[in-house]
Every structure is written in C-alpha cells, then in structure tokens.
# Entry
Amino acid sequence: MNVSQSVKLAGIFVALIVLYFLVRGLFGGGPESAPEAVAADEFTVVVDMIEPQEWRDEVVVRGRTKAERKVTVRAETSGVIADTPAELGSLVSKGDVLCRLSVDARQAQLAEARAAFAKAKLDYDAAAKLSEDGFRSETAVASARAVRDQAAAALERAKVELAKTNIKAPFDGVYDERHAEVGAFLNVGDPCATVIKRSPFLVVGAVSERDVAKVSQGDRGRARLATGETIDGVVRFVASSADPATRTFDIELEVPNEEGALRDGVTAEFTVFAQERSAHRVPRAALVLNDEGEIGLRTLGPDDVVAFKPVRLIGETPSGVWVSGLSGQLQLIVSGQEYVTAGQTVNAVPASEAGS
# Structure
C-alpha cells in the first residue's frame, strides 16, 4: 500500500508536537510551578489598628416628673371654713394657714378650762400650805394635786382643739390645689388643700432587667420633658426588687427646681450616664463566631498569625459597636476574617493602603 507524501509529512509534524510537550513537561514545567503552589497557600487580609478608649454606657428610661413631697392637708377637727388666707398657686411657708375654721364655742371652752385650772391650782396651793402647818392630811393634798393636774390637762386639750381650727402648711412649698371653699363644712379627715414641695423634683421611671446592673446611685442623668425643658440631675434611688408584673426596677432621678418651672406628672425621657470604663470600638462587620458559638474578633498576632479574641457587646453607635474583653492596642482583621482561622499565617495589608 502506497502512502502519499502529504500524509507522511502530517504524521511527522504530529510526532514532533507530542515530543515537544513531553520534553517541556519533564524539564521545563516543574521548576516554574512550585512558586505558584506556595502562593496559593497564603491568604491576604486587611487589618486596622484599634486602641482602648474611655466609654460610658447610656441607659434611656421613659417616665414622668414627680414632686418629692406632695401632701394633701386634712382637717383634724370639724367645723365650717371661715377663711382661706393663702392664694392658690402661691408660695407658702411651713406654718402658714391654708384653711381657717370657725372657732364657734372653742374659745369659750378654752376660757372655761383656764378658769378651772386657776381654781384647782389655788386649792392645791392652799392644801399644801395647810399640810405644812399640820392642818391637812397627805391624802387631802394628793386629792387637790390630782384635781389640779386634771384641770391642766383639760386646759391643754382646749388649746389644741382651738389651734386645730387653723389648718397649716406642713412644709415650704407651692399651694397647688384648694379642696374646699369658704362656707364648706369639714369633718375630721376631709381635705383642705394640697401643698407641693418646690425643690428638688424627681423624674421617675422603670429600668429593665437587662440594664439595671448598669446604673447605680450617684450616676449623672439628663431628662428631656414633653414641655421642652432639659434638666440635669443625679440618680438617688434604684430599686432592689423588681415589679412582679413588669419585671422592671423603679429608678428616681433628682433634679433641681429652684425657679419652680417644673410641674408634677409631665411625661419625660431621661438618660442615665453610667460609670466610665475602658473599651474598644470596632466595626460591626468585624464580629465573627468561633466553632463553639462564641462571639468575638479575629486579630493578627506576631509573625502574622491569626488569633480569635472573645468579646462582649456593651454598646452601639452609628460608627460601630463597643466591646469589652480586649486589652491594649490590637491589629484587627476587618476584611477577610470570615475565611481564616486561629493559628493560620496570612498576608496582612493595612486598611489605609487597601483602598489605594
């Protein structure tokens, strides 16, 4: 069988190509592929240096204003109101008369008690003198003394009963509400007026179980009222037991009110600034979970070795989250942290150069 010249040439050409690739694979390809394999084992991450900063937690509480002292003054004796000397809404001092009841027969009863006491005192003095001279027995003197003492007690009761006709302010404050007008009859226990202590005032609310450990007595606070005022104060009380229904803890912020601008019962929102401490602010995207489900950060240690640092979230801002559990200055992996593991060696690129 005769083979054409063109077929012979094609066969020789194919054989040469196969021989070329065999020789290249044996002598040329090996040394060039080794550096590529080494480079494939190294992963590049972006790191940023973070440092501890002073951080103060903020706990926001919704509540209302409340007078520190608010007392409804009530009648201690019965009678018709003859006068209400104090002006509604005015400042009153302790002892100022808010309602004055008609004296009626109380003045006469006081005069009668005074006369009875004067007579009993004279009788006792005479009995004591005669006893010294031997003309009265000790029994007679003791009887006269008892009558005198009874008359003295009756006189004191008459004075107190008369004094009760003047219903007075129990402390300095604002005459906030009048409960009865002139001519009204008050029985014992009926209200006359309400007095509010002017300063200090309170802003009261309830803090959740999650936040109660963050606040303590003496912490600073700032309240914003529905009426527009903003006032600074100090936490003076944090409840030790929770409300059984809401599982929240009562809290009181004491604020000054020397000018009397605050009103009782106004809706308020106040922020308590907890104690300062050291913390780190990191990007939220840098947070990762390890195999045990712990939340933390991947950092870069000596020789570019990856480490996992567990942290606890303690606050949040628009620019990142605040975490505790870290110490000092750290190289934080901010890009590529999801693809590396603790103990792995990586190539690190500073965040300042990553975008250039």
The first strand starts at residue 43 and ends at 50. The CA atoms of residues 43 and 243 lie 54 Å apart. The chain has four domains: 43-54+278-354, 59-68+198-276, 78-102+165-196, 104-164.
